[in-house]
Amino acid sequence: MTDTGIALEAVEASGRGAAAMFFRNKAAVFGLALFTGIVVMSIFGPGWYGVDADDMVARPFAPPGDEFGPRLGVDYLGRDVLAGVIVGGRTTLVVGAAAAGMSMTIGLVIGGLAGYYGRWVDAILMRLTELFQVQPPLLFALVLLALFGPSSKTVALAVGLVSWPAAARLTRAEFLKIRELEFVKAARTVGASDLRIMLRTILPNAMPPLIVATALTVGLAILFEAGISFLGLSNNRVVSWGSMIGKNQFYLLDAWWTVTFPGIAIFLTVLSVILIGDGLQDAFNPKLRGR
Amino acid sequence: MLALARGIGLRLIQAFGLLIAVIVLNFILIQIAPGDAALVLAGEQGSGTPEQLARIRADYGLDRPLLIQLLSYIGNVLQLDLGQSFYFMRPVLDLIQEKLFATVLLAGTALTFALTVGVVLGVFTARRPESLASSGVTIMSVVAYALPVFWTAIMFLIVFVAKLDLLPIGGIEDPRYEGGFFGELLDTVEHLILPAFTLGLIYLAYYSRLARASMLEVLESDYIRTARAKGVGERSVVYRHALRNALIPVVTILGLQLGGLFSGALLVETVFNWPGLGRLAFESVLRRDYPLLLGLLITTTVIVIVANLLTDLVYRVIDPRIRIGGKR
Q: Residue A190: helix, strand or coil by DSSP?
């Protein structure tokens, strides 16, 4: 058994312990159930509910509970709010996940290289990270959208591009810490390549904090996507929670339901992701509970 | 003292390098911007014959090599010349100066509110970790993080303006209002309450949790035990010995968060029609006013860099471990 193997085994063992911890945490299990429910609703909900979110189904501004209107009321064009809420999560979830994936990938590569190689590589990559970190993220994303045109793809790219510095810093710190440990030195002694050491020896041991960070990044990316759609700077032909609020905000004095329900959907989605992240944090690192 | 001076000097050089990098990045973004700047300018002058385009290119230096353009762009920005707005046909810097105060007022109020209430809550709950208030802080911090700020803003409008009719719906002042200096001050404060509270709420949650964690950690440290052992009163232990050190992480994080604060301000200003830089940025996106948009990006980025520098300096001065040149 190599040292890397022992290290991996230790990670797996702590992973099993962490899973047990996670499922004993009520808030975390609630978050996981909520998130699963939202994903299932986004995939199967529109087909099951059967109302097109773009169709006019009742007189404009029919409130919730109106005898002719649908359950959650209709908006200024007579569109079913519930249908919008059910289908509106698709864009948000896909764009949020893609942006978070991109953000974590950039962060892992930059932070990993900086932490592993240190010295001038670290100096250059950290200055680059700082360059992206000092620009106000939403404004930077808006500039990118203004330059490259609004579409779901550019929104995901822009959000990914502005949100990676935190992941890079975290990855760097973990790599810096782990590269000094005995089993990494052992791997180097037996002649493992740099790439192999980074991917097979250090990365698995850096996973716990990175998984937690991924959950938070997904939450942040969803909020960014919602904010951009709210401003009307995303793909306007697709119904999304943010754009529903943006288009209906001018009628908020007369029709509170048109802006309230999509916002609750965004809130619950981000909440579920954070609860999962918090649960993972506690499971990996029980000492920090309640902080 | 020498180590402190060298540390500060190094940070200043780094901050300046970062500033140049930001300007270069902006220049690259301008180059990528779709459309020929000469065509846009010609459109504003009413016609676009080839001769006229050539003259515009020569006038604005667009016919020079890219590197020369870059250097002159850096020179211009360092001399605070951010160019002309396509839409307003006025210097970008003037437009930014006009709106800067409103954003500083909003963000400053939000941050002050979040910091003071957050630290008080954090210290209070750190002394009673098992209390209901402590669970309250935990729940509030998760909820406030998950709330989309533009939606919270709209919900407050519905409750406090549409239903209760307590506060004005938006803007920074009521133009019809004439009530002398104090009357107008009161009017602005009334307009400020909802936007500042909305924006501050996120940071309130954040700071109260951070202050609590940091306070809990400090209260467990040896020097606090020593202070208690020699009979220092509980109030003095908490407020004179522990609080100072517990505040260090709160101060350090402050500069880093200004970028995020401005992002939040952009959304809040849009909902409340607050005439600040954020709303100007949003409108500039819709108008495709690239010089103004990039000018705003540079200005806010410089503010973040300067704030980071300041918090770093404050941190060096208040923390003796760094002042004498030790490791962080």
A: coil
Using CA atoms, how far residue B282 sits from A228, B14, B259, B303, in Å, is 10, 31, 16, 19
Output the six-digit token pair for A94: 């896909």
B251-295 pLDDT tens trace: 777 777 888 888 888 999 988 888 888 889 888 888 777 788 888
Q: For residue B175, give Cα distances in angstroms to B172, B179, B180, B277.
A: 9, 11, 13, 20
- CA angle, residues A152, A153, A158, in degrees to nearest 5: 100
CA distance A265 to B183: 41
Q: Determine the distance in angstroms separating the CA of A223 from the nearest CA of chain B, rounded to an integer.
A: 6
Cβ atoms < 10 Å from Cβ of B281: 30
Identify which of B1, B3, B7, B88 has the alpha carbon closest to the alpha carbon of residue B312: B7
Beta bridge partners of A79: A56
β partners of residue B44: none
Compute the half-sphere exposure of residue B77: CA atoms within 13 Å on the CB side of its CA. 25
Which residue in B has a C-alpha nearest to residue A273's C-alpha? B146
Tokens linked to B182: 């104090």
Q: From the CB of residue B5, how many other CB atoms can be counted at a distance below 10 Å?
A: 9
Question: DSSP state, A74?
Answer: B
Q: What is the pLDDT of residue A1?
A: 40
**Residues in A lying within 8 Å of B, measured between beta carbons:** 127, 130-131, 133-140, 142-147, 149, 219, 223, 226-227, 230-231, 233, 242, 245, 249, 252-253, 256, 259-260, 263, 266-268, 270-271, 274-275, 278, 290-291
Q: Which residue has the tokens 């973004």?
A: B29
Maximum CA pair distance of chain B?
87
Residues linked to residue A74 through DSSP beta bridges, in sequence order? A80
Contact A253 B155 (CB under 8 A): no
ipTM summary value: 0.83
pLDDT in tens, A55-85: 666 676 666 766 665 676 677 666 777 777 8
In contact, A159 and A106? CB cutoff 8 Å: no
Position B176, amino acid: R
Under 8 Å CB-to-CB from A134, ≥6 apart: which residues?
A: B18, B22, B259, B301, B304, B305, B308
From A147, A231, A259, residue closest to B33, measured CB to CB: A147
Which amino acid is it at B267?
Answer: L
Residues A185, A168: contact at Cβ < 8 Å?
Answer: no
Beta-carbon pairs below 8 A across chains A and B: 144
C-alpha B14, offset from chain centre = 20
Tell me the H-state helices in B147-221. Answer: 149-156, 180-219
- Measured between beta carbons, the chain B residues lying within 8 angstroms of A219 are 145-146
Q: Is A80 helix (H, G, I), strand (E, B) or coil?
A: strand
Question: Could you tell me if A276 and A31 are in contact, meaning their C-beta atoms sit under 8 angstroms apart?
Answer: yes
User: Residue A46's Cα: distance from chain center in Å?
Assistant: 23
Evaluated on CA atoms A281, B304, A109, B29, the torsion sign reads: positive
Residue A233: its chain B contacts at CB < 8 A?
285
Chain B residue whose CA is closest to A220: B146
Q: What does pTM read for this prediction?
A: 0.84
Instruction: With CB atoms and an 8 Å threshold, state whether B216 touches A291.
Output: yes
Radius of gyration of the CA atoms of chain A, in A = 22
State which amino acid sits at residue B42.
A
Alpha carbons within 13 A on the beta-carbon side of B291 = 21
Closest residue in B to A166 (Cα–Cα): B256
